[in-house]
Amino acid sequence: MIFRPAALLLGLSMAGLVPAMATPPSSPVDACKMIDPVAVASAARAWFGVPVTLAKDSAPGPRAGSCSFTTDSPQHIDITIFYAPSANPAMYGLDQSPPPNETPVSGVGDRAVFDQDANPANRYKTENLAILKGSAVLVLSLTLDQKLAFVAKEKLADFAARQLAPKM
């Protein structure tokens, strides 16, 4: 399963629409509370070698939310966090062995998988790190200009382990 931002948003939206076994949180899930914007800007500077000014966009929801940090200068970078504090791991492919295009990642949560897609026919390429910790699922998704180099999965895992997993 490739974790595409559109599919994730649909999945997270469905998580808010489909009745769940667990009681929904009393307040909307705000994924932006999971991360310090300064840490995101610092990581982007380290990963891409240039200082960037990132615009933040929050999309809280009743059972899941997303938080995006984007810029188009000097090139397109979109760093998005999808977070569901109580989710069905099967919706994210985290309940099975990963298919050949995904790589298990150790040291982040109870289980994590990484994938990337650089189809040259697309304007942008993506890479995603999906993390399961307890019943919570978090996906760190990067959508990048094709000209930018991918961020090594080890760097994404390290960022997630330090900045995101402790708050799950």
How many domains make up the coordinates? 1
Structural class: alpha+beta
> How would you spell out the order of helices and strands?
HHEEEEEEEH
In DSSP terms (H or I, runs of 4 or more residues), the helix count works out at 3
Strand order of the largest sheet: 1-2-3-7-6-5-4
Helix content bin: 10-25%
CATH architecture: 3-Layer(aba) Sandwich
Mean pLDDT: 86
Query: So what's the CATH class?
Result: Alpha Beta
* Alpha-carbon Rg, integer: 15 Å
Largest sheet: 7 strands, antiparallel
Q: What's the CATH topology name?
A: Protein Transport Mog1p, Chain A
Question: Which range does the strand content fall in?
Answer: 25-35%
Structure description:
- This protein has one domain: Protein Transport Mog1p, Chain A.
- The chain has 168 residues and is α+β, with helices and mostly antiparallel strands.
- The two termini are 23 Å apart.
- A seven-stranded antiparallel beta sheet has the order 1-2-3-7-6-5-4, sandwiched between helices.
- Strand 4 and strand 5 (111-117) form a beta hairpin.
- It has helices spanning 5-17, 37-48, 153-164; strands at 55-59, 65-71, 77-84, 102-104, 111-117, 124-133, 136-145.
- It is 22% helix and 30% strand.
